[in-house]
Amino acid sequence: MSEGSFGIGIDVGSTTTKGVLIDSSEKVLASHLQNTGASAPKAVEQLLVQLSTQSGINPRDCRIIATGYGRSIVELAYKTVTEITCHSVGVHSLNSEIRLLIDVGGQDSKVIRIGQNGRPEDFELNDKCSAGTGRFLEVMARVLEVSMDELGPLALKSKSPSTISSTCTVFAESEVIGRIGSGESASDIAAGVHLSMASKIGSLSKRVGVASPVGVTGGVALNPAFRHYLSKHLGQELWIPERPQLTGALGAAIIALRGQKE
Amino acid sequence: MSEEKPYRRLESQDLLQQIAFRHGLEAMAASEEGRLAWVTSGFPVEIPLAMDVFPTYPEQAGAIIGASKIGPEVCGFGEDLGYSQELCSYARSSIGSTDRPEDVSMGALPTPQALLACNNICGTVLKWYDAISEMTGAPVHLLDTPPLEGEQLPHHRAYVRRGVDRLVEFLADTFNTRLEDEEATRVANLSSQAIRLWTKVLETCVNKPSPLNCADRFLTMAPVVSSRGMEHCVEFYEALLAEVEGRVKEGIGAIRNEKTRLLWDNIPPWFILRFFNQLAARGVVFPADTYTHAWSGAVEGSDTASILDGVSEVYSDVYLNKGLEAKVDKMCELIKDYDLDGFVMFSVRSCKRYSLGQLVSKEMVTERTGVPGVVIEGDMVDSRLFSEAQVQTRVDALLEMFV
After folding, report:
1. Contacts 24+ apart (CB under 8 A), A21-28
2. N or C: which end of chain B has fewer CB within 10 A?
3. CATH 3.40.50.300 given to domain B12-400
4. Structural domains counted in chain A
5. Is the same domain home to A74 and A39?
6. What is the pTM of this model?
7. Chain A residues whose beta carbon lies within 8 Å of the beta carbon of residue B403
């Protein structure tokens, strides 16, 4: 096996750690996603075992690019690249038409304008607060006593979404509790929560400039209510990859592979 | 043993430390003699100086508190008194260190006899100095310079000029002193010499490699802020100019391997100046910034009247006293003149006047210059508002755009 045959991308996010292993034709041979938990190095170690088991390839024989907030703790990494570049490259490889990418992860949301060459041209990230991130939805799901998987479908049942005006997660939580207190239905409140989040991310997108077609990635892309309200807010159809959480790791793997070929 | 750092230290820094030390001693002596005034950074300091009133700068003290990494603690002293965390961290740390000087290892200032505020940099300064006045008993005097949109109109100039006259009257009454022609001309002359030398120093950074990086300018700007109008300030900038011109002549840069040239916008995070040195290791230099270029107006004049006219113009026409368009123009001009590849805008939680409009100006600057930029968030003194990992990701992503 020659150096340059495989690439691994590891995306250490705030909530989950993702890994993708590709061969020289950029075909995915192995991929895995797991909770980051309290120890990021441990999560990376377990992830590499998974990639190795699935593909039969020793990760030490591959060039590894690390991305995500925990990128600097991946000891085996050849180098680190930000998730902004990795998501662009990853999405570009799946759908080269995408000009605007909205990635909503556990800790932040990013809006990236992707150039013809697949590299980011401009980007915006949400500010330090967790409003408009996966964490926001986690907090709201807990208050409404539903799982994350149930939250989106619950919201889609609503015909008259509640108004959630606070953008801060903590204040919005109090507001949701107030709505529960005033007898509004869980589905209306859930819809209001998604509406509020979609409008916050929609505004962030407009700051970068909405260019079609628009892609959405990150764990929150799996939530149907979020997609529904965001699509409505932007007036755009949204493209979602099959596994929206893995595009950062995929981009990192592609960068690892291409770096060796150059 | 030669441990090669990615950046080069300025020899003039030794002289800078001497000046800072001397300034501190002089301020203490002036306080004891009953002739110390605290002034804001955009105050026409030439006037008190020419009237034998010694100026010292709480904002600079805030920078020292920030650089000493005691910002959160000292700002906390101000918060203990009931001031909001939303208040400017220069104000909070100044109020905090005035309340508990014994608990502040660096940056507490000697007791003032007057507080001279000019609102050409922001409106907070007046309330902040009011608070200090309550604590120290020193009277506050405000020089009001209404914001400028475009050219300074005659009525604007006349209004500010009347304010400058009132300032002279206030100092004369408070300190029992007079403004004499000879002293006014001498101080104004020294001040404009320092400003001209400083401007020349800044302009050497158009060279490739740039002889100065951001952190160098943030440190060496101290005398032009605190001591313009004094002889040693001119001496310092003569020495600094000689050193940077020497660097240019020999093709020596502030950093060893200059690859990317960026513009910095806003006050720096004083508690983490290593941010610039870490980027230096990756070949990133900042040949220009909007902050140190703000001290550029020289007060010219051959007698008291013309000097006071000059003061009324120059101190109205400062960067922060102008509209968004002027800020965008300045950034575009610096990007063009210094041949910069991109820009970093620091959104400073404390400084609303500086940070307001950055999102819009980012778009406008990119549109006009074609170079990308990024907005990072934080504060200049209160490190609790700075998330290093988030800042890193944004700056790294900007750098990846140049690959």
Report:
1. A21/A51, A21/A54, A21/A55, A21/A57, A21/A59, A21/A62, A21/A253, A22/A250, A22/A253, A22/A254, A22/A257, A24/A257, A26/A93, A26/A254, A26/A257, A28/A250
2. N
3. no
4. 2
5. yes
6. 0.89
7. 119
